[in-house]
Amino acid sequence: MTSISNRRGLLGLGMAGGLILAAPTAVTGVFARDTKKPGADEAATPPEQLMRGHAILARVLLIYENGLRRAGQGEDIDPAVFTRAAEITKRFIHDHQEKVEEELVFARFKKAGRMVEIVSVLTSQHAAGAKLTDKVLAAAPQARNKEPREAMGRDVQALCAMYRPHMAREATDVFPTLRHLVTADEYAEIADEIMKRERQAVGADGFEKVAKQVAEVEKVIGLEDIGVFTPKS
Predict the structure, then answer these.
(1) Torsion over CA of 66, 68, 70 and 74, rounded to 10 degrees?
(2) N or C: where does the chain have the smaller number of CB atoms within 10 Å of the terminal CB?
(3) pTM
(4) What is the pLDDT of residue 6?
């Protein structure tokens, strides 16, 4: 396994490393590159589009968990690993995806009077997740020190405990029901608007860039091979 110090160059940790952003306007500059193939995303349904964000968040949670576990065992994990993971979450999940869910999906349920209680809970969880991510960002630079690392670990545990059932409930209950609340034309309009907002937030091929940024962080701590998660017989 490549040492952590040798892997740092792969990620470009520090202020020059791709997704370390000072302002939302920087996101488009980092991610935008007009290489999108015509029709590449137009066929994707709203659930497919939104669950791509679920996958990004699930991978970030694995980075948090594995990085903190190994740091707690005495391994030197660069704090920028946690900073980069939290920045991705803040920019792509909280500032973009969750707003899309609330404004384009949850609003339809409230208007129809369907599943109002669950979408209200999911909305409150978005706000709670954003606050926890801000706490992770604040603690991450001190992650080599035991006390702030343990505090960050508690926040990460809270994120995992909330978001795993949150994402599951969206994927099994909310997103499939959306199709029954709107006409075919409205469903297509929602899909188009999701893609429009994604391009505005992270560029024409923004999702692919975000996925690559996550993969770079995974590579730094040896998670690029998903075989590491296979149980050993």
Answers:
(1) 180
(2) C
(3) 0.81
(4) 42
At position 109, the amino acid (one-letter code) is: F
- The span from the CA of 62 to the CA of 206, in Å, is 22
- How many domains, the chain? 1
Per-residue tokens: 182? 């709107």
* Closest by CA position to 143, among listed 4, 2, 40: 4
Structure token digits, residue 79: 């704090």
Q: Which of 228, 156, 198, 184 is nearest to 36 (CA)?
A: 198
| Residue at 17 is within a domain | no
Summarize pLDDT for 173-212 with one digit per residue, the tens.
999 999 999 999 999 999 999 999 998 888 877 889 999 9
Q: What is the CATH number of the domain that holds 108?
A: 1.20.120.520
**Domain span holding position 162:** 44-220
**In whole angstroms, what is the distance from residue 108 CA to residue 192 CA?**
16
* C-beta separation of 32 from 207 below 8 A: no
Pick from 214, 221, 224: nearest CA to 3: 221
DSSP 230: S
For residue 9, tell me if it sits in a domain: no
For the chain, the distance separating the N- and C-terminal CA atoms, rounded to the nearest angstrom, is: 21
Q: How many helices (H) and strands (E) does the chain have?
A: 11, 0
Confirm whether 30 is domain-assigned. no
